[in-house]
Every structure is written in C-alpha cells, then in structure tokens.
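@channel sequence for tomorrow's demo:
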Amino acid sequence: MFGKSIPVFCYHAVCEEDGHSPETFAAHLDTIVEMGFKTISASHLYDICLGRRKLDKKYVVLTFDDCHISNWLNVVPMLEERGMTGVFFAVSDFIGEGKIRSKSDVPEILPIREAFIKALSEKDTSQFMNEAELKSLVHDKGMEVYAHTCNHQGCFKDFRSCGNFSADSHWSTWGIYRRFNPKLSVFDNGSAFAYNGFWPIFRKGRVLFKKRTDEERRQFCREDFSRCMEKIKEINGAKRQFLCWPWGHFDSLSMQEASACGFEGTFTLERSANMLGTDPMRINRIGVGSSKDAAWIRKRLLMYSNEAVALGCFKFFSKKNDIGRVLYITDTGKLSGGSRQLINSAKAMRSAGMDVVAVLPPESALIAELENIGAEVVVLDDFKNLFTAANFLSDLISEKNIDVVHTYHNRAVKIACIAKGLSLFGRKKFKLFFNRGVIYKPNPLAPIFSMIGNGYICNSVKCRDVLLKHGVPSKRAHVVYNSFTGGGRKPRRSVTTSVIYVGNSGYAKGPDVFIKAVDTLLSQDSCEGVRFVAVGLEDLSAYKDIVSPATLERIECPGYVSHDDTVRLLATSHIYVMSSRQESMPNTLIEAFDAGLATVCTDAGGTSELIRDGVNGFMCPVEDVSAISDAIKKLIEDGDLRKNMGRLNRKIVRILMSNSAKSRALLGVYSSYTKDEPKTDPLDIDTIMEE
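structure tokens (generated this afternoon):
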C-alpha cells in the first residue's frame, strides 16, 4: 500500500531584482502552512530515508541554493515569522568576511546572474551571504547550511555553438574563460562536476580546446569537495554533511567522489518520492521558478506528498551529448583522399582529448598512421558480408562504449546503418554520420541513409548542395572542411621557380588541361629557369598528340610518390596548379596552402570557397587553358605577388583548417541535435585576409 512522501522544494534568489518577489514567496509559505505541512531539516529527512524516524506527518523541506544575500534579507525573516526552517547551500569560495548586514547595508541587490558574474570575474562576493550571516543562520536561527561546491564551476560540455562571448552569455562563461573577450566562442554549458568538458588553452593568441580525462575530473571533484567541506564544517560544526549538486548535474564518478569525501547525502534536481528507502545520496527536489504562484505550490505538495503519485511523476537526470569516444570505419585500405581525411579527423579528435577507435580491413595502409597518433585499431576481416560485419560493429560499439560512429566510403555506410538498426533492440545507442567528399551523384539511398543515421558531413558547401539536390534533407547535411596538419616548418623553396601539378591521369583531374596550359605558356615565353612538375603522372606519351614534344620534355614526371614526398615537393615549389574538371575539396590544394604556395585553380567544386580571385590565388573557368596559362605567367613574373598569396594561404590553413579548427567543427556536428540548424558556414577567410 502506498504511503506518504516528502516534497523538497529548491529556491534560489528571492527578490524583485531577480523576478521572484518576496510577496510571491510569502504566499508559497502561507500555502504550506494552510495545507498542514511542517518544514523539517535535511538531517530529519535523512533519518526518515534510513528508517531512523517515522514519516508520521505531512513534511516538506525548503532548500535555497547559492545563498544569495536576498535569502538573508528576505527569506530568513519570513521563515522565522512562521516558525519554519530552511536548508541553505553555500558556494564556499563566495563566502566573504564582514559583519551581519541589514537591508540598509546592501544598497544595491543584483539578480543572481549578475552576482555570479561579479564573484567570478571581479572576486566581489558581496552579493552572497558572508560567514557571519551563515553562522548566525545555524547558531542563532536554528537552520542548516551545507555545501554547494567551491565555486559552482561550469564547463563547455559539448560544442553546440552559443555564439560569441557577450554580456548575454551564460554567467558560468566568466568562470570558464575568467576574462571577458567578445572574440571568444561560447558553447553549451554544464556542470564541471558531471561533465569532463572542453577547456580553453591559449597559445600564441589563439584558443584551443581539450577534453578533460575522467581521472582529471575525478581529481578536480576530490579537491573541490574536500576544500568546500572543510569551509562549511567551520560554519555548521555538524558531523553529518550534505552536498547540493550545481544545476542538479552528477554522474557515477562525481557521486563516488562525493561519497569518498564524506558526504552522507546529496541533493539533486531529479523528481520522485522521498521516503523510507530513498537513497540519501540522491534526494529528489522540485525546482521552483520565479513565475510559480501559490496554486502551483499547492499542486506540487499534493503530487509529491503522495508516494504513488510522486513515483509516477518522476524525472531523472541523464547526461546529454557527453561524447568521449569516436569510432571511424572504412572498408578501403588505400591512402585515398578520403582515407587521408579519416586520419586527419582522428588526429583532430586525439588533439581535443578524445578516445578514437578505427575499424579497418586487414593490411590497411592506414593502420600504422592511426596507431602512431594513439588510436585503437580494430581489424574487420569481412566487409562484404554486411550483416555479419554489422553485428561485429554493433558488439564493438557496446564493448568500447562508442558515442559517435563516422563512416568513410560506401560499404561502411551500409554496415553502420544496419548496426544503427540493431541499437533499437537494446544495444548501445550512438550517433552516426557519413563522410562525403565527392561532388558526383550520390547513392539513390542517400536520403534514407541520412534519416537512419544523423546525417552527412560534407567537405564543401558545393558538395552539400549536390546532396540536397538528390533528396537529402537540409537538416541532415553539414559542412566540415578538410584539414591538414603540417610539420610547422617554413617551406624551403628551390632557387628555380617551380610550377607543380599534383593529381593523377583521370579525366576529372584535368592533367591534359595542365599540360595544354604549359604548352600555351611555352609557345609565348621560353620560361628559362622555370621547372614544371606533374606529380602522379608516370607517362606523358598519352599527350603527345595534343602538345609539342618540346613541352613534354619540359615537364618532369616523378610518377606516384608517397604523401610525405608529395608534401616535400610542394614545400620546395612556388606555384600550385589545380586544373580539375570536377572536384569537391582536394587535399592537395590545402597542402599547397600549408606550403605557402600561390595557386591557380579551375572553378570546380568547392575550390572557390577557399580562393578569392587575385588575392590569394587565381580562379579560372574549367578547361580554360588560356586563362590558366596567363595566371601562371603572372605568378612567374611577380615574385612579390606569389609571396603575398602564399602567406595568406598558409594563414588560412594554420588558423581555419588546423587540427583545433577541425576538432571544434567536427565536435559541433557530433554534439548537434536533430532540431539544431545544420553547420553550413563557409570558412571566414576574408577575416584572415584583413588581419
């Protein structure tokens, strides 16, 4: 048979300045009295939960988080007037010294938000109850004061963007950055006790973010709880100590540390019954908003004083977007452009402090590189048997506690979609994204794939536009640009001016267009001392009918070379030429940018998203041999123009296409909800050019 339960209400500031008027609060108290409820202490509630006292009356607990000065000036007198008691949770770093104050001693009462900002940014804690007032609460007023951590530390729990740091930002932002700067980005916040969080690191005028490890958060909780308890014990002198979770956020790790520190009970913002058998480490509370009237209080008293109703009207806290481990999967073992970006994405995640697992075919060329960056590599022998592979992947996701799966190449997409379906049958739930780095027509099932998973991640706006034209919903297509992580060294140019093409012999890459452009240029100018290099072409005999033999003799063809050697060749060159007929966002263009090269490109795919014609490169119409030839000639003749373009291109890559930039962009997509606007913004290269 169901019995009684004890409602526990959670208040914050009670003042006109914060929108919660004392008159409304007084009406709440009067309603509690009229309904025959008696206020009890946290210690009394604890004893009832453990069966040491009987739940023989209609009890209620009133709690007040943060100890805003309005609690002392407005709340305490009203409680005393009605013979009621309250439980106050103090932020220990905000407990200042001084005398007991009256209303005349506090000429200006600030809303709780502004009070937090002043305390965090200016160390001005005058808007919170001081030590003398808190001690008086306990020893003169017969009320309770317990811990609310040292400074209510917040963190960026994910990378859902909240714009730039502004006067309207959440107050916890001042505790994360410590100093106001409108150029800094702000993200979705949460409790630093429950979330590892992404923390800013300032280097050379730029801000990077790194996820804290479980052990780092454990140590943070341990130190904070111990220091806070020591301070609160000086005030309350109690043997039994309680903790109130900031924002009501907690998890098993932080709960373990609270218990290890000696807290015998904690107050959450979960909702359920408080009665015999309730775990004192998870005491349920009902948050009271500033707009709630006495009628609302009456309804909650009726609901949560009845065990059956309180158990039915539950609300449990669950951590949202707590991404700690990402899995990348591809069925190809070749170091293609997509594979190179898989490696770069894994590097970006590792640099942000994330755990990375990669599922690859045996003898994959990616294994060594991924293992070198600290990724865990798991080999899948059979990608062709889709259902067997999907079961393998689903088991791995559960075993490794994977939060996000990011696929590269088609077969991996199908396997992951089946694994996503299996998650509906009680297996580990995860977010699923598909990489898209090409510009041609997608699989006819792409719209269905996008709905099974969480969407596509495209490497250019043009690439995304193609998906939208073929039925992929706008909300399921994001843009995250490719990245490149160079060695950080300045390129060492050869003395001889060098013009370089990097690609292959495929029609889409336009090698013939490059060769014709060189032929046109040489027909007008001998270009003495200029080198022309075509990386990726082994035999020029296929072009003997379209250009002169003398032109073919001038073009050096090292054939296929490794990625590292390609990067070294770019670093010794001066002008990069991309003559493609079809592209999305070629890796070699970004690598040329990083090497500080001036560029001549055809307006194919997303290339125009990186180049401002005549500023950091030249844009030419596709297959316009004359335009390409003229642009190369300008750059050969104007060394200063080459250097200026190269300098801008290097800045673009190092700032906007770095590991840090990609990790932030990827995690922004991984953190997104379906209701969010997709990430589609082009790179802000114009700002870089203005610096």
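heads up for whoever presents: The mean pLDDT is 95.
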